[in-house]
Design a protein that fits this description.
10 helices; mainly alpha; 2 strands; two-stranded parallel sheet
Amino acid sequence: MPGLTAAPAHTAARLRFRACSRHVAQQPASLPAHRARLIAALDLPGAEPAQGALADLFLGCADAAAQRAALDLVRERLHPQIAAWFEAWLDRSEFPRCSRLATRWSVLATASLDVPRRALRCTSDDARALAAAAVQAWRRADAAAQQEFLEHCRVCRDTLAFTVARRAIQREALDLPADWAEAYRRLQTSVLTS
């Protein structure tokens, strides 16, 4: 799907983040390694890299003061509910190795399978980018790109991407195109029957 290619500036940030990830994997309890990785995560777009790095810090460094400082460092990037869930872990003794707060960017913690199917295949950042590209495809009347998006939504049950795109289209048009209306009906059915 167009719109998800990495820009050159993001390539350098991603390389820095990967180097920091290797240091964290080699020295899981090193607070300076975790802090450098969090700072590198903030140079990447979206919330997921910062969330994954923060989950690793919570797992690797049990010091509540260090965890609070790290959470404060990335709080603005996180969804408020995610920040609240991390906040709840500050008073607990041990962060779980398998956690709903871990992401694909985590190297110490493992993402839990106890999440929506869509979250296993793409992140909310990806879903929003896909939705924006789909709206652009609708504006250009690019039927092939729209069908690719609708197929992605159907297969992955990506209701977030579909809903974001659908709302944007409905702001500009009174009625959804027929294929979008059918995809909406199918997504509703698949969500209700699963």
